Amino acid sequence: MIIVIISAAVILLMIILTAVSAHRNSVRTDKHMRSSYGSIREYDSFLEDRMNEVAALFQHDSKDIPADCLVDDITWNDLDMDTIFALANHTDSFAGEQCLYSDLRILSRDKDTMNSREKLTQFYDGNEEKRNAVRRILLRLGKPIASYDISSLSDTIEDMRMPGSRLFPVRTAALLLTLAGGLLLKSTVLSSICLVIYLFNLVQHLRISSQFETRMNTVSAMGNVIGAATEISGIIPEHSEGISAELGEFRKTASWAAGMMRLSGMMSNDDMSNLFFSYILGPLLLDFIAYDRFISVIAGKKEQFMKVFRFVGENDCAIAIASYRRSLEHYCIPVTGPLGFSGLTHPAISGAVPNDLEVHRNIILTGSNASGKSTFIKAVTINIILARTICTCTADAASVPECGVATSMAVRDDILSGESYYIREIRYIKRMADLCANDRLIFLAIDEILRGTNTRERIAASKAVLRYFAGRKCILMAATHDIELAYALDGEFDNFYFTETLNEGDVVFDYTIRPGISTTSNAIRLLGAVGFPEEIITEALKELEEQA
Hints:
Helix content: 55-70%
Strand content: 5-15%
Number of helices: 21
Strand order of the largest sheet: 5-6-7-3-8-11
Radius of gyration: 31 Å
């Protein structure tokens, strides 16, 4: 009797502790959702380490997409788009994070898809109750590293089967039958056979589990995605019409398999309770049977599964975009039309000086060192990408055409390949020429064109390159220190410039774009501003006067 009372008390205590823990988790989740929505996201120290995994969906999506519809690696790195992605990454789940990254690198979304995303974004922004209900589901999915393999493994899921998988049900049945026979018939022989099967299954379970742990976690995450999609569709049925058929196909078998897969979570750690479950449930091979059954279901319906995956990811993206917009100092929803911005700023620079720009033809941008040329070109290019992907610009108003994007900015020598700065730069520009061979409009951004060679040849080659692009279907913005180049092409290109003022020996920049060609140079003055010895400044100015 005392044992029964003690057991009941222990069970009751466990129930109470579980309920208290669940309540605390719920309170923490509610607090996180309130504080995080619309706030600038804190630095994620692990994001850089998992970027290859985050990019897996993009690698999957981009296989059959033309190059002129993608933000390629050169452009992505030139613009430091990892930083922009990190700022916009208000996602709560791995599915949303991967979808957002893929979306930012694909510039060929059709108008209906863009409009649908925008409606969903505005829906979540205006409906806190449903937004938080969906976020709770997404936060449960979280961002476990094994889950990022889903998109890359979904195409080859048949290859993920365990060795001897067809015999798992037979071995489980044999264990249960000999156990039942031994107990009912009190047969020593059957009990001995049961023990042998138990030990064999246990050893096999421990061995295979260690080999397939990551894959089992990935498959479990796939089941969780289906469960999350089912829950989300129930919360927002008005935005879930296009996914109901796929969920109907998966709900029964896949949900059962996903539930069975959770058994592996009870046996995955080294504490006493999990070891107990390992020795009791492991030899039954239930998690292996569920794993194999799940693979059988998904293998025949890979496209349907990826549609379910994207449904979850797109809902996470819509909430993330709405939250990102609220975190910005200002933003607008761009319209489709000739390229132009009012109050444009760089999305990664707090308190940036806004600028206006209307693009009527190709542009040459001049100006002194550190005056703002490069930042402005990046601001324009990044906002074109944001406009064509997440319908968001850091401007008061924006008009952006349907176009591709390519840049040549952060060129560096490649010591490993032996390529010089100039060789790499002309390769970058050659790829731009290749992109312009198609019918799609391309926005091209070049910072300090052909600076890797001598002045005389640089001017001649730059004229030829810029005139070539002027005859193609593109919008070109090129920055240069070569004032001669701007004058030579004046009338063929629109000229804009940035400048600075000298205030009590200090160089002051206003970072404001102006029409025309720069008439100032500040390289020597900057030497003085940062404290170079006066004799160097005097000698440099003297040399400059002699050249003039």
